[in-house]
Description:
single chain; 120 residues; alpha/beta; Rossmann fold; 4 helices; globular
Amino acid sequence: MTLNYILDENVDKLYLRQFRQRNPNLIMWVVGDPGAPPRGTLDPEILSWCEEHNFILVTNNRKSMPVHLAEHIAQGRNIPGIFILSDKLTIGQTIDELVVIAQASFDNEYQNQIVHLPLI
């Protein structure tokens, strides 16, 4: 299985550019892209979009995202997962981590979870 990622609009766009340059066969969108939620979309709505379109949210939102995820699950809903970026990793290290995760993951491996990068 290969995962699809969507970047929160507050994540530096350098992640997107470098990810696409290194891995043109993997999917990474950003909030505001055509087909993605528009910029300014509230976090609960982004989680609903992720559920509907099967994308993992990549964000640096450590504060409110756990609350939003808990509310989403309490409504009987599911999402593929949320990955929280680490400021201890370089952009290149983060991209390498996301590529390995995308290519080596099982179906629903991160469902309804918040995962802090790096995994190891």
